[in-house]
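--- STAGE predict ---
source: upstream dedup step, 1 unique chain passed
mode: sequence only
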Amino acid sequence: MKKKSKKTGNTLAHTVLREHFGKVPVESLVTASRTFPLTSRVDLQAACDQILKESPQAKLIGVHAQYTFQTLTIAQMLAEDSNPVLVGPLQHDEVDIGEAMPARCLKNGLWLSMEKKTPFAVVVTPAEQHGRSTGIHIEIAVPPGEAGDEFSRTFLSRIEKLVNETGSYRGKIISLEASHNYSGIGGGIKVHKLRKVNREDVILPEKTLRLLERNIHDFVSKRDRLQKLGMASKKGVLFYGPPGTGKTYTVHYLASQLAKHTTLLITAEQVGLLDEYFQLARFLQPAMLVIEDVDLIAREREHMRSACEESLLNRLLNEMDGLREDAAVLFVLTTNRPEQLEAALASRPGRIDQAIEFPLPDEEGRRKLVHLYSRGLAVTDSLVEVIVRKTKKASPAFIKELMRRSAQCLLYEQQNGPLQQDHVETALEEMLFSGGSLNLKLLGAGNELAAGFGTSK
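--- STAGE serialize ---
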């Protein structure tokens, strides 16, 4: 008869394990474990399912600890204390992997099986640290001796191989969720479904485009040959320029073009997760690791306000240096304030190898932007030229918003014909003057643009 908890009446995990190992004293069991990144959750379970299906007698049960502030291990399951691990229903989370349907994954699973008359147990649980999930933990327990030791090594090697070959998130665009909770849809990972950006939609000066393609597209295409020559296959690129000049938009373009790369997006509020992002970059390489507004964590040390800020900078520098030279990782850092960057980051090859300026668009660039953002609208060539004249020193983001506001004016008047100059004038008036200086700043428009409005008619 299986021993049950007096408090709940549920079967105890240590009872099930003792029965499974039979005459082998559980105190003599030998365990080995691995911890995988959060992105491996789906692949790890699939690997366990595949291997354990080869054993017809394998049995899967759910295990539950009352307190989950640390990783659930087989040693904890065997403990007979006031916080026993119970056997219960199999619980699952639905994890978004960027496909039509989410993947269903176990929260805590314990497999009991045999290998050539040798009993073994495998547990897969969240890797917990102070109540915060840091990855996925797998542990195998076998009887002592050479046979058990050899089997556990082979088992974990097969698991690692299958996980690395599968890569459910490989080639996708992801970021870590801010929540410290492990359960629920997402499993700690958010998959971004960005609109595909084509080459002709990237409106930049020809010089900038050539520099971009040479340092990213050409570098990636020659990476394997560079590696064979004994040269580094990792690279750092800095995008800098005024707000709204297309830095983030270009990142979307790169993510669309580098189909075999996993793109990891790090925003300012996620800088505390830098070490986890670098771990993911190593695991999912080839990868493009994007840090937006890097000046927020890598400003000059004399401008820092606390030891915490300097600690984040040091963590970033250490992680960039810690990657192997043959790591297939591309760093893309963006900033609106390059003059504030710490020299240890911006002035050292091997961390940042190329800076690419994103300037305000010239006349030809503004013309292309008007055509790009007026799709669906009827706009005469003469009106396009008027808009180009009136938007000198305007950012691409400003022109995009101008075309939307102009379309609103057209729709407000319930007109079906082409866009008129009055519609553009009304939109510009609202954007440049009605909202005051704050609105100019929000739209990324300089005072020079507003000052030239009245003289460019």
